[in-house]
Amino acid sequence: MLGSAIGRALEARGLRLTRLMRRTPHDGGLQWNPQHARKELPDAAFPIGMPQALDRLEGVEAAIHLSGANVAGRRWTEAYKREMTESRVQTTRVLAQTLARLKHPPSVLLAASAIGFYGDRGDAVVDEASGAGHGYFPELCEAWEEAAQPAADAGIRVVHLRFAMVLGS
To answer: pTM, whole model, 2 decimals?
Structure first.
């Protein structure tokens, strides 16, 4: 939902997008499945082959990463918690590793996160300098953000977008 809205807004401004999509790509997108990637071989995320995928990503100005299973979509069973974790941490790590391998990486990676990073602090005021809270969701958010480190290590500016609830019609 959020990615589609952002994509339409950017395209309305005349920007060209290359979408990474788990389903069959359209509009010039690239198919990828980060669950197929291994830590030492993120190439496997791209079924069309890594050289073609890297060529298509070379020189992009920015990357926006919004992946993650819906936190409000289902009951948080242990199995669904694993799915929420894998859908965030694995996809972020694979994308960060892929961007880090580019000869001309983007200058910035905007990576989704959540205000759940802070945990329940009662009435305490928190800001971006505040540390992670305690419990499942703050620990998930912390791991999610740490998964972008390969991009930061490659000199890409990483911005963690700590969203609150996103509503749509």
So the answer is: 0.87
